[in-house]
UniProtKB/TrEMBL annotation:
GO terms for biological process: amino acid metabolic process. CDD domains: AAT_like. InterPro entries: Aminotransferase_I/II_large (IPR004839), AspAT/PAT-like (IPR050596), NHTrfase_class1_PyrdxlP-BS (IPR004838), PyrdxlP-dep_Trfase (IPR015424), PyrdxlP-dep_Trfase_major (IPR015421), PyrdxlP-dep_Trfase_small (IPR015422). It is an enzyme of class 2 (transferase). Its EC number is 2.6.1.-. GO terms for molecular function: pyridoxal phosphate binding; transaminase activity. It holds the Pfam family Aminotran_1_2. Its cofactor is pyridoxal 5'-phosphate. The keyword Transferase applies. Residues 36-385 form the Aminotransferase class I/classII large domain. The lineage of its organism: Bacteria, Bacillati, Bacillota, Bacilli, Lactobacillales. The keyword Transferase applies. This is Aminotransferase.
Length: 399
């Protein structure tokens, strides 16, 4: 590195020096280079985008939708998204409440940047998707972690109230992500209402990441926006519900006056999302109301299989409730760290899962398995994990 480059690096954003690239992505890339590997690493649906959605994108291109769409999103998509949220979750949104983003990740960054100043605090229940932690820190926002591991990974209203009382006006927002990445846990109506009751009388935003809302097992998803419509900045999209991760279409739903402020941050960051991808998402929200149901049934079967297998090996895990992740605790008697476990499993059995540590407090000592993979892959992966456990931890597991 030249002296000039070194000097210039020292003049960049202060927080970037301590912000590391995703360890999960790095591990996935490392695993991808191994022949015969079974990757259960990323939150990537193994289903293809439904045919009617693909045809809508083709028609969009044929109609020369290759120019700039409106920055907030096409009117058709915004109306379709509002209708979808209303019909599915009783949220009473209109197109004026919807902002179309480049995936849910941009939605998160837009929300964080719009509601905070450097030094402000955001409450973050953990374990949580590591991107939240990095986005907050990169923008000079202080994450206030609440470890939910002892409450079966559901934020308790008691802990939330105590944290809000302790930190006072410094807190600008609370992040809620359910169904959860990485735990696969979701919040039931009683859980959601209890949290809403704590927040209702406080001038605090709720950044509600509900991207997995269509993938719940048992009870129907209940959005926190049903209880806190004025305070909630709701994040959703088509990536998980319609197997459209690569299309990069997310949405933010919020009260119209708040949405106008969010829009400014979005417009000056990305201008707008891709036109033909928006047309495809409009089709998904309009004529794909039930597209996620068959996927959801399949995910539930896979999740139950993984749960049964992993617990039989000696891991502790929560029964699948939503999304497509199993968060499994390594028995302490095995005396191995989560990353060491993952690296050794990859080297010896060619199975890639990710460590729990990157997901924040409460994630240490866990591994996350993404069961967004075929049952055939999952069955073979479980055979290999069983062999790995037998080879190294059988005595400890039976102790």
């Amino acid at each position: 590195m030249s002296e000039k480059v070194q000097q210039l690096l020292g003049r960049m954003h202060n927080e970037l020096a301590d912000t590391k690239p995703s360890s999960i992505r790095a591990f996935d890339q490392e695993a991808s280079a191994i022949p015969g590997v079974i990757k259960l690493t990323l939150g990537e649906p193994d289903f293809n985008t439904p045919e009617h959605i693909k045809q809508a994108a083709i028609k969009s291109i044929e109609n020369n939708h290759s120019h700039y769409p409106q920055s907030a999103g096409t009117p058709g998509l915004r109306a379709a998204a509002a209708n979808f949220l209303d019909k599915k979750y009783n949220l009473n949104y209109t197109a004026d409440n919807i902002l179309v983003t480049v995936g849910a990740t941009e939605a998160i960054a837009t929300a964080v940047m719009a509601v905070t100043n450097p030094g402000d605090e955001i409450i973050v229940p953990t374990p949580i998707w590591p991107m939240y932690i990095s986005i907050l820190k990169a923008h000079g926002v202080v994450p206030v972690f609440i470890n939910t591991a002892e409450e079966d990974f559901v934020l308790s209203f008691e802990k939330l109230k105590a944290t809000l009382d302790e930190h006072g006006d410094k807190v600008k927002a609370v992040v809620l992500n359910f169904p959860s990445n990485p735990t696969g846990v979701t919040y039931r109506r009683a859980d959601t209402k209890a949290i809403a009751d704590v927040l209702a009388d406080r001038d605090v935003f709720v950044i509600a990441d509900e991207i997995y809302s269509e993938l719940t097992y048992g009870e129907k998803h209940v959005s926190v926006a049903e209880y806190l419509p004025e305070q909630t900045i709701l994040i959703n999209g088509v990536s998980k519900s319609h197997a459209m991760t690569g299309w990069r279409i997310g949405i933010i739903a919020a009260q119209a006056d708040i949405q106008k402020e969010l829009f400014k941050m979005h417009q000056f960051t990305v201008t707008t999302a891709t036109y033909n991808a928006q047309d495809a998402a409009e089709e998904a929200f309009t004529n794909g109301f039930e597209d996620g149901l068959e996927m959801c049934k399949d995910y539930q079967k896979r999740g139950e299989f993984v749960y049964e297998q992993m617990t039989s090996f000696g891991f502790t895990a929560t029964k699948p409730q939503g999304a497509f992740y199993s968060f499994c605790k390594i028995p302490e008697s095995w005396n191995i760290g989560d990353w060491d476990f993952c690296r050794q499993l990859l080297a010896e059995q060619k199975v890639a899962v990710v460590a729990g540590s990157p997901f924040g407090p409460g994630g240490e000592g866990y591994i996350r398995i993404s069961y967004a993979s075929s049952m055939e892959n999952l069955q073979e992966a479980m055979v290999r994990i069983g062999k790995f456990v037998d080879a190294h931890f059988k005595t400890a597991a039976n102790a």
